[in-house]
From TrEMBL:
Organism encoding this protein: Kribbella antiqua
Segments traversing the membrane: 12-35, 55-83, 104-125, 137-157
Domain of life: Bacteria
Keywords: Membrane, Transmembrane, Transmembrane helix
Keyword Membrane among record annotations: yes
Keyword Ligase found: no
Protein's name in the database: Putative membrane protein
Length: 445
C-alpha cells in the first residue's frame, strides 16, 4: 500500500522527473568530459570548433537562455492550471499536474540548464587555471541540447494550447474514467443483495487518519477476517471522506465468541484501505463522472452561460453511462476458501451513477430546451445499453423527472412541445424494451 501511494504521488509530482533529469545530466556531462576525439577523424568535423573561451561563452549563453525558458514554461503552466480551475473545474488540476508531456518537457529544459552550468567547472579551467584544452564532445552535446530544447519549446506551446481546450479536457476525463471501469472496478463477488446488519456486539476498527478513501484492496482484510473467524464490513466507499477515529471497518463474529483479533484486523485494514488527503481517480469512477458533471453545471451557471459546453459534457457522460450499464455493479461480498462470508466492500450501483451524471445537470439546465434534449438523448442511449429491466426502469424514472422539471421551468410552451415529443418517443422506446411484467408496472408509475 505504501509503494502504491508513493507511486501515485510521484506520478503527479512536477519535480520528480526533473530531479531524475538533473542526475542524468550531471552523470552524462561527467562521462563525456573524459571522451576524446582524435583530430582529423570523421567525428572531428562535427564537433565544436571554437576555443576554450568560445566554449565557455556558449555554455553561459545556453544556461542563461534556459533559465528564461524554464521561467516561461512554469508561467504558462500556472496560467493553464488557473484557467482550467476557474473555467472548468478545480478537480481537473490533478490531471494537468500528471500530464507526462509537461513533466518531460520541463525535465529536458532543466537538464540542459544543469548540463551547461556544470560544464563551466571543467571547460577551459583546470586546477583554477585557464587552459586551452576542453572536452569538445561535451560542449557539442550542450549545443545539441539547446536545439532540442527549442524544438521541445515549440511542441510544448502546441501541447499546452490543445490541453486546455474543453474538448481535450473532457476527452481526457472520459478516457481515464473508462480505463478505471475496465481495469479497477471489481468483477467478482458483486451482488445487489442487502448488506448484512452488524449485530450489537460489533467491534469498530477506527480510521487511522482523516481524508478520502483512495483505494481498497480487500485481499489482506479477507485473510485477517478468516484467521480471526470474523466478518468485516467496510463502512465507506472509495472516494468518500472519513475522519480519524471514526469507524472504518466493523467486525463481528457469529455465533458470539471471544473478541476478534483486533490488532491483526487493524493492521490488515491499513494494508487494504488507503486514505489520502485528496480524492483520486483510482478505482473511483464517480470522480470522473463528477468532473464531467461539474463542467456541465459550471457552463450552465449565469456567470458563464455556455449551454453548448454543457451539451458536450453530457455527450461524454453518455459514453461512461453506456459502459456502466452493461456490467454488474454494487457491493462486493468476499468469501474465504470454505465459502464463508468474510468481507463486504460497499460499492456504487447503477442508480447512483445515473443520478450523479444527470441529477445536477437536470436541475441547473431544466429551463434550456437543448440541454434537456441532450439529456434525453443520453438517457435513451443508456437505456439501450442496459442488460436488464431494472436498469431501464431507472432510466425511465430519470426521463420522467426530466420532463416534469422542464415542464415547470421552460417558460415558452412552444419550446416545451418539442421537448415533450422527444421525451414521449424516448419513453415509448424504453418501455417497449422491457418485459411484459415490467412494462405494466413501469407504465403505471
Amino acid at each position: 500500500m505504501q509503494r502504491e501511494a508513493a507511486s501515485e504521488y510521484l506520478r503527479g509530482a512536477l519535480w520528480a522527473l526533473p530531479t531524475v533529469a538533473v542526475v542524468i545530466a550531471l552523470a552524462a556531462g561527467s562521462g563525456l568530459s573524459y571522451v576524446e576525439v582524435d583530430p582529423g577523424s570523421w567525428a572531428d568535423s562535427f564537433l565544436f570548433q571554437g576555443t576554450a573561451d568560445d566554449a565557455r561563452t556558449l555554455l553561459i549563453a545556453i544556461a542563461s537562455t534556459m533559465a528564461t525558458v524554464i521561467a516561461l514554461v512554469l508561467g504558462l503552466t500556472v496560467v493553464a492550471l488557473q484557467l482550467a480551475s476557474t473555467q472548468f473545474s478545480p478537480r481537473l488540476l490533478r490531471a494537468f499536474l500528471r500530464d507526462r508531456v509537461n513533466q518531460v518537457v520541463l525535465s529536458i529544459f532543466v537538464a540542459t540548464f544543469v548540463y551547461s552550468t556544470a560544464g563551466l567547472y571543467t571547460v577551459g579551467v583546470e586546477a583554477g587555471q585557464r587552459v586551452d584544452e576542453y572536452p569538445r564532445l561535451a560542449v557539442t552535446v550542450a549545443l545539441v541540447l539547446l536545439f532540442l530544447s527549442l524544438l521541445v519549446l515549440v511542441f510544448f506551446i502546441h501541447h499546452l494550447t490543445h490541453s486546455i481546450q474543453i474538448d481535450e479536457v473532457m476527452r481526457t476525463v472520459e478516457r481515464r474514467t473508462l480505463r478505471v471501469i475496465a481495469r479497477d472496478l471489481p468483477t467478482t463477488g458483486l451482488s445487489n443483495e442487502p448488506r448484512p446488519l452488524p449485530p450489537g456486539w460489533v467491534v469498530d476498527v477506527a480510521a487511522h487518519r482523516s481524508g478520502y478513501l483512495q483505494t481498497i484492496h480487500p485481499v489482506a482484510l479477507v485473510e485477517a477476517a478468516a484467521y480471526s473467524g470474523a466478518t468485516a464490513l467496510v463502512t465507506r466507499m472509495v472516494g468518500e471522506h472519513v475522519i480519524v477515529g471514526s469507524p472504518l471497518v466493523q467486525v463481528w463474529q457469529e455465533p458470539v465468541g471471544p473478541p476478534p483479533d483486533l490488532d491483526r484486523l487493524t493492521a490488515a485494514a491499513r494494508d487494504a484501505i488507503r486514505i489520502g488527503f485528496e480524492r483520486t481517480a483510482e478505482q473511483d469512477v464517480a470522480f470522473g463522472v463528477r468532473q464531467l458533471a461539474d463542467i456541465a453545471v459550471k457552463a450552465l451557471s449565469p456567470a458563464i452561460n455556455d449551454p453548448y459546453t454543457a451539451i458536450q459534457a453530457i455527450e461524454h457522460l453518455s459514453v461512461i453511462l453506456a459502459s456502466l450499464a452493461g456490467r454488474p455493479l454494487g457491493d462486493q461480498f468476499l468469501r474465504d476458501e470454505a465459502g464463508v462470508l468474510r468481507v463486504v466492500v460497499p460499492g456504487r450501483n447503477f442508480e447512483y451513477y445515473l443520478d450523479l451524471a444527470c441529477g445536477q445537470v437536470r436541475r441547473y439546465g431544466r429551463s434550456e430546451p437543448r440541454v434537456v434534449r441532450a439529456l434525453l438523448r443520453i438517457l435513451h442511449s443508456t437505456g439501450q445499453f442496459c442488460t436488464d429491466d431494472d436498469g431501464r426502469r431507472l432510466v425511465i424514472d430519470q426521463v420522467k423527472l426530466l420532463l416534469a422539471d422542464s415542464q415547470r421551468a421552460i417558460v415558452q410552451p412552444a419550446d416545451f412541445v418539442v421537448v415533450r415529443e422527444h421525451g414521449d418517443r424516448v419513453l415509448s422506446d424504453l418501455v417497449g424494451q422491457t418485459s411484459p411484467r415490467r412494462k405494466d408496472s413501469t407504465t403505471a408509475m
